[in-house]
Amino acid sequence: MTTTSVQSNLITNITGEPYQPARLYYYVTNKKTVLGVFNKLKCTEYYEKSDHWYWFYKEEAQKIRFQQSYNKIPKENRPIPLGYFRFMSDNLMILEVRSFQRVIEAVKFFNTRINWRAAEPVRLGIVNKLFGCSPDETPQPPNSFAEFFDQDDVVVYTPEDLEEEIQDIIAQHETEEEQNKAISAHMEEKSKHPLPETEEIAVSIHDEGLSILEMALRMKHIEAWEHWQGNKDFTQYNLIQSMMENMPSEQNISE
Q: E strand or H helix at 165, and its extent?
């Protein structure tokens, strides 16, 4: 890990992006197929002592572009692990990585190599904060991601919960116009609340799912960055308002 000076030193990964832990959950229906892919790839290696499959920044994965790309990383530091897979059971596999960008790059990389019918990412645990240390400290990664994601304070969101909220709102209004207005007001109010420090969200890789995930993580990262900069009252609502203000007008589009 390297550090950047903002207040205390911002902890970043050796690939340049801020350290922000994430755990991706895969639903596995064919473990043998997944292991076959891992064994074939030159950038994944099994470590029997930890029972982890490490994903390294080398070979097939070295084409991935981070702020510090493969060629900019000193040879003595190569190969660096981008993350590691672990089977919790025959039907559950997790991937733990140290940044939101690595989540997206992992999904893109492995979706082209592991058929979704064999293993599909379905949920994602994320930490909505950035980390720092004093200049005289050496940045240390956590001993285990369990200290983030295996705790009782993780806020879990499901599509079913949101659907239930919306149906409750619809039931309270008669006309479609009233319902839509109430739903918009409800979503706006929700966006004014700070993100939970640790949350678990649903993931879909189908249709526009990956693009939606990428945008969501980018927006969550921006809120974490604003808080790091000292803007503690910044929420997704502020970000959405800023995005809307900066959207090109219809006149500019036509020109």
A: helix 159-171
Residue 97 tokens, joined: 């990585």
Which stretch of DSSP H or E encloses residue 253? Answer: helix 250-254
* Predicted pLDDT of residue 160: 85
Q: CA-CA distances (angstroms) from residue 94 to 50, 63, 91, 157?
A: 14, 23, 10, 18
Q: 12 versus 249: which is more confidently predicted?
A: 12
Beta strands in the chain (DSSP E): 2-6, 8-12, 22-28, 44-47, 52-56, 81-89, 92-97, 119-127, 132-133, 155-156, 198-202
What's the pLDDT tens digit per position in 129-178? 999 887 777 767 666 799 999 999 999 988 888 888 899 999 999 898 88
Both tokens of 33, joined, read 């197929």
